[in-house]
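Q: What does the assembly look like in three dimensions?
Context provided by user:
Components: two
Sequences:
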Amino acid sequence: MALGKDYAFQDCSLARALEVVGERWTLLIIRDALYGVRRFSDFQARLDIPKAVLSARLQTLLEAGVLAKEGHEYALTSMGRELWPVVHTLGRWGERHLDSETCRIFLHAACGERLDIDGSCPSCGTPVPPEDVELRAGPGAVREDPVSRYLESPHRLLEPIRVS
Amino acid sequence: MALGKDYAFQDCSLARALEVVGERWTLLIIRDALYGVRRFSDFQARLDIPKAVLSARLQTLLEAGVLAKEGHEYALTSMGRELWPVVHTLGRWGERHLDSETCRIFLHAACGERLDIDGSCPSCGTPVPPEDVELRAGPGAVREDPVSRYLESPHRLLEPIRVS
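A: Here is the predicted structure of the complete assembly.
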């Protein structure tokens, strides 16, 4: 590991955060956990990574308190759910500047309005917590693994997905 | 490169965003650029990384349009400045859950209120763009490089810093 995982001499809470969520694939695991994925096999279906890498990332997230084990499942803690604005804002930034097609659309479930980039509802004017967000597939969603197929139907964030 | 840099089979704008900002050190470079750092030597003073790594990261950010060259300096584009909410929210998450001491405090320059976690001003009620944010050092700021010392005094985000 030429570059290591920590940022020992950075006196900065962003560096501390990146020590937990900054490794390759980790924010995509958190994305899927926000979508409702909880099983190892379902994370694996969505992410094309070796089991050993997925295990190591999940272990880091468990140790940091972002995920908690519930039986054989991995569930986001409240600390983990607080990463929703980061995942949403960074995804929308990517969509706006780097993407051609929208893959996921996030709506305020209560009123059906599409969330603003900052995660608030333009109609109700308040930040929408993830449990009140409805996820829909956009035209850019093309993966065909079982979890992605399940997500072709509208789905509430954090509502458990168990497909494989 | 066992894990590569792209996420080729992820049909997701978050994956596209992470291809640009997800490499190790990159978000810390963007953090410093938001603070006003523009010179290669000043980025180097703040980050303890080899020149080759810093060069490669800056090159990726130039190619993606996050940074633009202005003479010998690196300046954030509007696309780059839009990463402020991500940097702020993730840093505040780290402060809240992983840090003992606050290293940076972000105030709405117009009224002196500390920003909410979502980057808005609790007194004015609106999201505060980075150019209206005043940065102050907190008790956890202990680095002694020239840029960090400069940032011990209150400083407006994006206002150029040139110290080395």
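Follow-up: Residues 73 and 112 of chain B are 30 Å apart (CA to CA).
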